[in-house]
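Priority: medium. Attachment 1 of 2:
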């Protein structure tokens, strides 16, 4: 299908979906962006009104429409709480594809998305080189969080406390794996994801330790690629489709029961966005492969609780442990709002009697990361993040866990800048700790 036909198809789908919005304004109360800016144009209702009649506005002021549309965390709070069932995330992504198809990508995004991200081998190599030289430009910021800050003035890094690239990415530690199912009788395909591979390899290692303990077979293909969410969020359908085809080829020939990831965003992308954004002109074979893989995909917390049967420790035992570390949990937007997974990571955490769980207020309020939103609107992202940090402090925890590596990065930045000595962990790391003591 030609690009123009594809855009015309998306435009038609968009018009059908926009009429569902009643303009009731319920999205205002749950929008983390609106809570900071107070601007109607920043809330879903305002963006949907902007998109009504997009065809005319696209020719009149495409750049202005794109900028207002791009100012969104894509957290899904509006869609989850919409009484009319407006599929806001789907609408915004389709609109971004339409506008990008009309305007083209900026040179910077074209370089990052089409020059690097859509070529996994090139992307891996560049970041491995970056990890070798990052010490020249950074200095430690927090020993407990492992954050750093910039040694030199930088428009992107200057105000941030960021996580460094791992010295050795996970794909170098474990290039590939294909082990049979053990005592569980289950075999999984493990999708590592970019951030876990390149920043948090310990989370991936914790997953392998858990799989081994429970007798779960593991398939990891060599040379995994990005799930495609940065591309589709930027409206770059070309790069997204290239990564989709790349990953489908890696996984479709393998035999496994479930595909699991430890990244909330990757899980949501594979399970929901892959089948949603498959080009209508794609072959039936590709559509079938995408449907099969997305149907097998589960968040790793959900998989361990629902398929393996992991249960929480007896609370009385935890309470008797005077040395238990108080821990709280942040619900990633893509995990709770998009996939409905909330209890399962808490159960993994509570399975470790070395921790005492304390629920924070507004646990499912967005941390403010939003992927590229954090790069473009860092001050707003940080303001949203500060609210999350106050809620973590209210819980009185020494550790905060979350099931999304992007949230881990954002929360680490905010805690480090606030000089809070609160560690950030993945629920897998907490659960894997308990296995070593058994």
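Attachment 2 of 2:
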């Amino acid at each position: 299908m030609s690009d123009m036909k594809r855009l015309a198809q998306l435009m038609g789908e968009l018009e059908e979906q926009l009429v569902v919005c009643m303009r009731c304004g319920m999205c205002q109360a749950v929008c983390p962006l609106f809570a900071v800016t107070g601007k109607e144009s920043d809330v879903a209702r305002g963006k949907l009104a902007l998109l009504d009649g997009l065809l005319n506005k696209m020719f009149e002021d495409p750049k202005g429409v794109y900028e207002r549309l791009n100012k969104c965390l894509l957290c899904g709070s509006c869609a989850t709480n919409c009484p009319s069932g407006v599929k806001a995330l789907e609408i915004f992504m389709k609109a971004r594809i339409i506008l990008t198809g009309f305007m083209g990508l900026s040179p910077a995004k074209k370089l990052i998305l089409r020059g690097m991200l859509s070529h996994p081998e090139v992307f891996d190599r560049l970041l491995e080189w970056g990890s070798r030289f990052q010490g020249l430009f950074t200095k430690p910021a927090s020993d407990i969080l492992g954050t750093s800050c910039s040694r030199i003035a930088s428009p992107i890094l200057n105000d941030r406390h960021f996580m460094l690239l791992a010295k050795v990415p996970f794909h170098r530690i474990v290039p590939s794996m294909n082990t049979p199912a053990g005592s569980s009788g289950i075999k999984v395909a493990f999708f590592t994801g970019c951030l876990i591979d390149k920043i948090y390899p310990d989370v991936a290692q914790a997953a392998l330790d858990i799989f081994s303990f429970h007798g779960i077979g593991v398939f990891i293909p060599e040379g995994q690629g990005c799930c495609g969410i940065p591309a589709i969020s930027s409206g770059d359908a070309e790069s997204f489709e290239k990564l989709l085809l790349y990953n489908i080829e890696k996984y479709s020939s393998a035999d496994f029961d479930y595909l699991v990831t430890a990244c909330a965003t990757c899980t949501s992308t594979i399970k929901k966005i892959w089948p949603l954004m498959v080009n209508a002109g794609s072959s039936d074979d590709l559509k079938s492969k995408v449907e099969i893989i997305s149907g097998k995909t589960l968040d790793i917390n959900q998989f361990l609780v629902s398929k393996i049967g992991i249960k929480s420790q007896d609370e009385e035992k935890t309470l008797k442990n005077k040395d238990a570390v108080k821990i709280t949990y942040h619900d990633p937007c893509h995990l709770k709002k998009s996939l409905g997974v909330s209890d399962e990571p808490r159960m993994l955490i509570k399975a470790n009697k070395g921790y005492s769980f304390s629920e924070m207020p507004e646990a499912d309020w967005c941390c403010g990361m939003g992927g590229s939103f954090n790069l473009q609107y860092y001050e707003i992202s940080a303001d949203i993040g500060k609210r999350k940090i106050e809620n973590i402090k209210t819980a009185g925890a020494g550790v905060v866990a979350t099931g999304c590596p992007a949230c881990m990065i954002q929360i680490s930045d905010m805690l480090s800048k606030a000089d809070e000595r609160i560690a950030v962990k993945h629920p897998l790391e907490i659960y894997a700790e308990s296995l070593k003591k058994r």
